[in-house]
Design a protein that fits this description.
The complex is a heterotrimer of chains A (312), B (334) and C (268). Chain B is an alpha+beta fold. Chain B has 9 helices and 18 strands. In chain B, helix 2 packs parallel to helix 4 and helix 3 crosses helix 4. In chain C, helix 3 crosses helix 10 and helix 10 runs antiparallel to helix 11. Chain C contains 11 helices and no strands. Classes of the chains: A mainly alpha (312), B alpha+beta (334), C mainly alpha (268).
Chain lengths: 312, 334, 268
């Protein structure tokens, strides 16, 4: 194997080995240089470009980007129609996060406490596969499910609950022409797509709760629900916060789901996409994109305070 | 006799200048060629760092290390004629036992056939003929230890370093391996340097022992030197838990006003009447080969090892002590 | 408590949650066989396999498929090199700026994809870089690095330093140690990371819409069909292909890392 190396090669390898041994930092620098160069140039450079662009503005008459610094574009975010978009997106992200916590808890708790052997693997794959499998296919599946002529309408009529569905759809704000063109539909799909991101960290932090602590609580006479409320849930909190970072951030930045399933009301992501594309207003698109960054920075600062990073 | 390894005021410091940890502090050490040298000490005493300084995985912060007279501060580990048996064996899990043993030859570019026969010779040396095609995971702890030994010996090192080589083995296997290592060392004539925290292991296997404490060498000597003539209170206490007598008690035992050590087995229990020193028994601990009698004398805790079969006092009884004057050993102050 | 019987309500909640995650995808499969091509009527009025043939003969499907495969292959290749280098450095020592680097690696997936996408779009606009396969790869490789990095860092941690030390002790140079000891032990973790990176890249749509310009990757083709459908069952056939292209690598990664101890979360 190594026998084919020429003396010249061997000499160089030996010299470099000696160098790396005497100066470990040289090796460290050589290892780090390519990835740091890439991330620094491509990613950080782009983020800087984004920030830079957000301080430009667009000339209303010619539609040409004016390359001088101004806060005018950020000011436009406060116009009622733009401010509404931000408020709507944040409310949706909060609702989706809350629903994910509720739905994720039984799955995470069961997987962490009761699943053994084969079932452990079933739960693991059962959560990992939807997490990783095609995002677009998942969204498409819900387009099929929520369509007016789709399976939900069929099932509701089948069990004689068609009127219930109609009642839900006529409810102001969340209702609409059909589930696939309502806020309720958008909300459902968001929850579906981001749910695994909540389950995993929650399960991880629940697995770290020592069983003895739950038994201690039971010994002290606390009932099952009481133990759940006053012992298990507080201990699972770091996982919940870690998961909420994902669900919140992903909802803030998504533009595909509300575009395909919803009532065409705009979200931050859609605004960014449309402004940079058809409208050609890159400065305003960039300013919009800064909003999720700011929100997430605040969110992460709070999460860090609460010790959520240990559960990531 | 040639000197195999020599430390001249070697120090190894870790951490930032304001919170410096002196893992090895001004150590001078001479290891003779062909000796079986033990580095003994509690964990964190600097013995493992000294071993890693010889193998080259640590560089001295100050001082100089010479291997067979050559200053090796510029020689990387792969160019040192020194090999190591690691504490966790560090066998390559993806290679067969034979490939593990032949690894040192392979990286030198030696041809496959020679490698194979040399590896099989080494496996025979450690009594593992026929195990060449297995993977390390299929071996027991003792067998893995032998593979690690064969792998380290294949390059014919002039010094073999062993880092707590028997730590992971159970008691019976450990004793068998002690004898085997000792006879292997005699047969090959290679210098063995081994690190241990087990004083029994160090005393029974080594020709010379260095006792480490807080990064410094407390004493170097033959096993009997270390055991019978400890240089400091630490050595007396760590090697075989001797009775350490403060100066006033040494006087009561008939010595000068100095710190002294007195081995529990050097003390004999006698009748209290007319005894030179008396004490009150506080506890008895049966050890099989004898009984350890704890007693209090002059406000000081003392231990006596009563041989098996001798008459034992009751707890709380007043007993007398007797000893040979030559077993009272004076130590340098600290 | 682990051996106790779980409360009934919890069992129903857990199983219900898993079904909620999996049932919708099965519908995709069903609708690929429906005879109804204008709507998503349930139950399908009839079943047929003709759409597979129709999809095969649709000329507009093949170029996006090739483009996606090409982008995914190049991106995961780049990610393997960059992610492994970074993991090797991070597993070696504590050094100043270590936390900053790990944050930098994770950021492209921690921040919403739209930010990565819009940032790249802004940069391309400022530097006058025309859209091309390269611009797509730039984005994809950036968020794939962390996937490989996570897998590799976990394996490096498990390997520890003693194998490398043993190799050096026996006379190997740094390069021999890498080739004969580190690489063989890192192999499956890298392969798993590459699989996941491939799946992630093949499926990515949010960043891609900002960096592709007029080019169509498979997900962008699907997105167009979702917005302006024609021959809906063909979209389902393609969806099955896309699903398989992500599902199979994930399953492979799971087995490569021995039950997924290292893949968990994956940091996606």
């Amino acid at each position: 194997m190594g026998s084919a190396a020429s003396p010249l090669q061997t000499g160089l390898a030996e010299r470099l080995t000696a160098l790396f041994w005497r100066r470990p930092r040289v090796l460290l620098a050589l290892l780090l240089a390519p990835p740091l160069l890439w991330l620094g140039l491509v990613y950080v450079g782009s983020l800087a470009a984004l920030l830079w662009q957000s301080f430009y503005s667009i000339d209303e008459f010619s539609g040409v980007v004016k390359q001088e610094f101004t806060l005018k574009t950020f000011g436009e975010l406060l116009l009622p129609q733009n401010y509404d978009i931000i408020l709507r997106t944040v409310s949706m992200a909060a609702a989706v996060t809350l629903a994910s916590v509720i739905l994720a808890f039984p799955v995470a708790f069961f997987a962490a406490r009761f699943a053994n052997g084969r079932w452990k693997a079933v739960f693991y794959l059962g959560i990992m596969l939807p997490l990783w499998s095609s995002y677009l296919v998942k969204v498409y599946a819900w387009k099929l499910i929520l369509a007016k002529e789709g399976i939900i309408t069929w099932a509701a009529n089948g069990i004689g609950a068609g009127s219930v569905l109609d009642a839900v759809l006529t409810t102001p704000v969340i209702g609409g022409n059909s589930l696939s063109t309502s806020y309720l539909g958008t909300f459902l799909v968001f929850v579906y797509v981001w749910l695994p991101y909540m389950i995993l960290p929650m399960q991880a932090s629940l697995e770290r709760v020592p069983t003895s602590m739950l038994e201690a609580s039971a010994d002290l006479g606390a009932g099952g629900l009481r133990t759940l409320w006053s012992v298990t849930l507080p201990l699972a909190l770091p996982g919940v916060i870690a998961g909420s970072i994902f669900t919140f951030s992903l909802t803030l930045g998504d533009y595909i789901i509300p575009q395909i399933i919803g009532n065409s009301a705009s979200f931050i992501g859609m605004a960014v996409y449309q402004l940079q594309g058809t409208a050609g207003n890159i400065p305003l698109a960039a300013a919009f994109a800064v909003i999720p960054i700011l929100i997430m920075l605040v969110y992460l600062a709070i999460a860090r305070r609460l010790g959520a990073f240990d559960a990531l | 006799m040639t000197t195999a390894v020599e430390f001249s005021s070697v120090s190894r410091h870790f951490g930032a200048p304001d919170r410096l940890v002196k893992a090895v502090d001004q150590v001078d050490l001479v290891i003779e060629e062909g000796s079986f040298f033990a580095m003994l000490g509690p964990s964190g005493s600097g013995k493992t760092t000294c071993l890693r300084l010889i193998s080259g995985f640590e560089l001295p912060s100050a001082g100089e290390i010479r291997i067979f007279g050559e200053n090796c501060s510029d020689v990387p580990p792969n160019r040192r004629n020194v090999n190591t048996v690691f504490q966790d064996y560090a066998l390559f899990p993806h290679m067969t036992v034979r490939d593990n043993v032949a690894y040192g030859l392979m990286v030198k570019g030696i041809d496959r056939r020679t490698r194979r026969s040399r590896a099989d010779d080494m496996l025979a040396l450690v009594k593992l003929e026929g195990f060449g095609d297995r993977k390390p995971a299929q071996l027991s702890g003792g067998q893995r230890q032998r593979v690690a030994l064969a792998r380290a010996l294949v390059n014919e090192p002039r010094v073999l370093l062993l880092d707590e080589p028997l730590g992971a083995l159970d008691l019976k296997l450990r004793e068998a391996m002690q004898d085997e290592l000792k006879s292997l060392q005699k047969r090959l004539g290679i210098t063995f340097v081994f690190v241990t925290h087990d004083q029994g292991e160090a005393l029974s296997m080594a020709d010379r022992v260095a006792v480490f404490n807080q990064g410094k060498v407390a004493q170097v000597g033959s096993p009997s030197d270390i055991y019978e003539r400890p240089a400091t209170r630490f050595v007396a206490d760590f090697v075989g838990s001797s009775n350490v007598l403060p100066p006033d008690l040494t006087r009561a035992f008939g010595g000068p006003a100095e710190w002294a050590s007195l081995r529990p087995e050097a003390l004999r229990l006698v009748a209290s009447a007319g005894a030179r020193v008396t004490g009150r028994v506080t506890a008895l601990r049966y050890l099989g080969a004898g009984t350890r009698v704890a007693l209090e004398s002059y406000g000081q805790e003392l231990a006596v090892l009563a041989p098996a079969g001798s008459a034992l006092p009751e707890t709380g009884a007043e007993v007398g002590l007797d000893w040979d004057a030559k077993s009272l050993h004076m130590m340098a102050g600290a | 408590m682990r051996s106790d019987r779980p409360p009934l309500l919890l069992t129903f909640g857990a199983i219900g949650g898993l079904l909620f995650l999996h049932l919708p995808i099965l519908l995709i499969f069903l609708y690929a066989f429906t005879t109804e091509e204008k709507s998503f009527a349930f139950p399908p009025p009839g079943l047929t396999t003709e759409w597979f043939g129709v999809a095969w003969n649709r000329a507009d499907i093949w170029p996006p498929l090739w483009l996606s495969l090409k982008v995914a292959a190049i991106s995961s290749g780049l990610a393997i090199i960059l992610g492994t280098l970074c993991a090797a450095a991070m597993s070696r020592a504590r050094f100043f700026g270590r936390d900053t680097i790990s944050l930098l690696v994770i950021l492209p997936i921690a921040l919403p994809g739209i930010i990565t996408g819009m940032s790249l779009r802004s940069a391309f606009a400022m530097a006058d870089i025309p859209f091309s396969t390269l611009t797509i790869v730039l984005g994809h490789a950036t968020f794939c690095i962390v996937i490989v990095y996570n897998n590799a860092v976990a394996r490096f941690r498990r390997l520890g330093t003693s194998l490398s030390e043993a190799s050096a002790d026996l006379g190997a140079t740094t390069f021999q140690t890498f080739r004969h000891v580190i690489l063989p032990n890192l192999g499956t973790a890298l392969l798993a990371g590459a699989m996941l990176a491939f799946a992630l890249s093949f499926d990515e749509v949010i960043v891609t819409t900002f960096t592709a310009g007029q080019q169509k990757t498979m997900p962008i083709w699907m997105l167009d069909e979702l917005v302006r459908p024609r021959q809906r069952p063909v979209t389902n056939v393609v969806a099955i292909v896309v699903f398989a292209a992500t599902f199979l690598p994930i399953l492979a990664a799971y087995y490569l890392t021995g039950g997924g101890e290292e893949t968990a979360g994956g940091g996606k």
